[in-house]
Automatic annotation (TrEMBL), chain A:
One of its GO terms (cellular component) is cytoplasm. The keyword Acetylation does not apply. It comes from Linum tenue. GO terms for biological process: seryl-tRNA aminoacylation. InterPro entries: aa-tRNA-synt_IIb (IPR002314), aa-tRNA-synth_II (IPR006195), aa-tRNA-synth_II/BPL/LPL (IPR045864), Ser-tRNA-ligase_type_1 (IPR002317), Ser-tRNA-synth_1_N (IPR015866), SerRS_1_N_sf (IPR042103), SerRS_core (IPR033729), tRNA-bd_arm (IPR010978). L-serine binds at T313, R344, E367, N479. This is serine--tRNA ligase. The lineage of its organism: Eukaryota, Viridiplantae, Streptophyta, Embryophyta, Tracheophyta. Keywords: Aminoacyl-tRNA synthetase, ATP-binding, Coiled coil, Ligase, Nucleotide-binding, Protein biosynthesis. One of its GO terms (molecular function) is serine-tRNA ligase activity. It is an enzyme of class 6 (ligase). ATP binds at R344, T345, E346, V360, H361, Q362, F363, E431, I432, S433, S434. Residues 115-186 form a coiled coil.
TrEMBL record, chain B:
Residues 171-198 form a coiled coil. CDD domains: SerRS_core. It comes from Linum tenue. Pfam families: Seryl_tRNA_N (PF02403), tRNA-synt_2b (PF00587). Gene3D superfamilies: Bira Bifunctional Protein, Domain 2, Serine-tRNA synthetase, tRNA binding domain. SUPFAM superfamilies: Class II aaRS and biotin synthetases, tRNA-binding arm. Its EC number is 6.1.1.11. The record marks T478 as: Important for serine binding. ATP binds at R356, T357, E358, V372, H373, Q374, F375, E443, I444, S445, S446. This is serine--tRNA ligase. PROSITE patterns: AA_TRNA_LIGASE_II.
Amino acid sequence: MGLHSYFGGTTIQTLKMAAVPAYSRVIFRPISRTLVALDSFPRHSPRPPFPMLARALSTAAAVQTTTPSTESMGTATVAKPQWKAAIDFKWIRDNREAVAENIRKRNSKASLELVLELYEKMLAVQKEVERLRGERNAVANKMKGKLEPSERQKFIEAGKNLKEALTSLEEDLVKLSDELQLEAQSIPNMTHPDVPIGGEDSSAVRKMVGSPREFSFPMKDHLQLGKELDLFDFDAAAEVSGSKFYYLKNEAVLLEMALVNWTLSQVMQKGFTPLITPEIVRSSIVEKCGFQPRGDNTQVYSIEGSDQCLIGTAEIPVGGIHMDSILAESSLPLKYAAFSHCFRTEAGAAGLATRGLYRVHQFSKVEMFVLCRPEESDAYHEELITIEEDLFSSLGLHYKTLDMASEDLGAPAYRKFDVEAWMPGLGRYGEISSASNCTDYQSRRLGIRYRPAELAASTNPKKGGKSNLAPTKFVHTLNATACAIPRMIICILENNQQEDGSVIIPEPLRPFMGGMELILPKHTGKLTG
Amino acid sequence: MGLHSYFGGATIQTLKMAAVPASASYSRFVFSPISRNLVALDSFPRHSPSPPFPLLARALSMAAAVQTTPPSSEDIGTATGSVGKPQWKAAIDFKWIRDNREAVAENIRKRKSKASLELVLELYEKMLAVQKEVERLRGERNAVANMMKGKLEPSERQKFIEKVLNHSASGKNLKEALASFEEDLVKLSDELQQEAQSIPNMTHPDVPIGGEDSSAVRKKVGSPREFSFSVKDHLQLGKELDLFDFDAAAEVSGSKFYYLKNEAVLLEMALVNWTLSQVMQKGFTPLITPEIVRSSIVEKCGFQPRGDNTQVYSIEGSDQCLIGTAEIPVGGVHMDSILAETVLPLKYAAFSHCFRTEAGAAGLATRGLYRVHQFSKVEMFVLCRPDESDTYHEELITIEEDLFSSLGLHYKTLDMASEDLGAPAYRKFDVEAWMPGLGRYGEISSASNCTDYQSRRLGIRYRGNLAPTKFVHTLNATACAVPRMMICLLENNQQEDGSVIIPEPLRPFMGGMEVLLAKHHTG
């Protein structure tokens, strides 16, 4: 099958660094520098070299390695963010109407007023800090010259007062910027102009393929089929693990393997690099991808006695691969197809469709993930939904693709396409995939940038030094389900059932199941017991 | 490939029940009288003179009902106190232990176990004595009650009442004395259970006695490959072939995590697919299992989910943990059930991800993929009649050896020495394969016969033709631990040009791919 050729051009050039984001130079660096001057090196050096501590304050890069103190987050007045997103506050201020409109569209609880108020306050304090620092420097310069003792005493007094005032202001600045960060993190991504405005009902059908199969016999749902074909064991799993866990048995195991293998082989042909990811990650990565690992209603399982959680989707570990790095433009787009198990608490899922395999605590999934240049993300979004649609069509499913309405988008998504497939046993359409363009929402949190190719070679590369490097930009990230196994198993079993209770295996999967064409009911010989 | 035929006889008939052990005659003796009394005294003291055998009795006499309540881990952890209350009860055959005390003591010595047989026997004798006294008092009470049923002279009646009230020198009346003894009995049986759970399984007579060095080589296949060029280890090969990313995983997850990339993903899928297809041909039923399980199941399989040095990741705010091996969820499939003898043996091949904290692994071989927090594994698990477990142990090790031979590995099989056996194992065969990059043999599989150690904890019995139930024997064996297999394949099959030859059996599962080629890093 020529799998070799898939790996031709997939090498990746990354330049890992503890990144100082461009915008943050304005806001954070002066603070950090002062903090260092005041606290760490107050008397050793009048002009400290740009030190480690400054980086720790100015970017997420260094922060993520320290264990987050969740205690302080819960109780403190101004909670301290564990890491900082590179949010473009100036852009938000300059586009306040659009941002306000967007918050309304998405029914978000974010408070733009508060963010802007905090930002203006911070700028004012920032300005005052700069002014005082200037004064202090002026005083320090004057003291370098020869002075009368009385004169010198006056300057010493003045310097002392300035220092105290600065210290207090700088503390305010840190608090303000923490508060600002926390508030601003809840502002959702902007919304694609074509996204329908409103609640779930407003979602627009983009495409519809096939039609519900007509059955000439009473059909069964996947649970019933699974029972007769001996494919699942929910009862034993409830004892061993809890409700909504399950064992896959017999042909269901082969079906899962076949779905994963087939899906990977298909997306590899489209240039995606296959991955198998860690399923335990630091909580900060989960947050940076836009999920909430803490709180009563979290979907995330946490590991006891650590800052780690289980992933709910491979989007999280794949998003983290290039965290805090600057990619070469030539390496973009990066296209990954990651196979992982996914774990979800499904807290608050009571009352939702929970029959059988539809909503479970653990499942296998192949997830596509793309990192690309901003101007290309819309095109890759189209590519991703096309790949999904092609996969589902190949399996013979009847489905529709939805352009999800604004209120149905998670905070990271700029636009989201869901595919809902017909599940005749359940008697309804069920979501089988989701493709989201997150633009720079995740990359600003994960610190993933790229450096546009060097500017025209007009400048002398030797003399130019850094100046001929274009400034870095944040990449755009997209994620899309290639195959969420249990829901795909529901579709295949319920749509492909025959009157005799057997289930026809879709042709593309057969080569991955040793040529098997049919799942036959087991003959449970009546054994005495 | 005729996969259909694998499923012919794999149907399973189980009879799930909240079981009161029939075979465990000791438990009837020890537990059911207590439970019955407790019920009579505490729950139904005045409503019914002879209560029907109630639910509460089962809760006390068997693990079945207990496992559904979340264990209060605080109790276990902080039990500086008198007697830690066991969260579930193993059906340990105390009478057998007493009757075979020399053999058990000898076995504890052989295995360098810290279990205290003396304490167990002392507690058992104490418990029997209290038990006897309880029976006697109960008889007396019943006699009094019976007499009071008849017509009595008032003076006669008064005499009986006084007899009940002033029962003994201690001044306690009959009812109070009984209650007090019964409390003692519960405490004693809890303490006995706790102590006895640490007694290791007995040991197969052929197991070499001693430490790791005493393990005996059972078989040796092939010889270390001679290289005409300088050998790379799998980390170096993985780097050149762009197969792993440990650095990104260290940032995202922590050290000893990794991403598999490119052909490594295909290799994992191929190993799993090929292994499953091989063991299915041997009659094993494939499973994909839950990877989050209740802590009690982990304990019942003989692992310690709590404590500072535990290998087990726990889920915050619940009584669940991540599995370290599919042996745990497969062991749990038939928990608290009685199987028909005709369904035995049950042979499963379970694919799962495995999660291990690797606490205390500092200093051990930790390069690259050898010791990691998460990995994929296909595990075989057999439930069978006691008289067949030795045979199935041989079958399991043969299957393992055949698999590794097919992949062209050089390995040796060891009959592990007594001190190297975990508490559940009666006998354990390890396979160690040659890893030329690491320059040593490394464990790639382990096949254990646990006899009835796990089934007595998990409550898995079988019933022959109307015969009393017996505990099944359980066995587990690695069919394919993916990362270690990858180490072997990369390091043994490397070529001078940096490429790696894929073993023939795996090629059909990798779209015909024959060789892993070094990536050309452009630009």
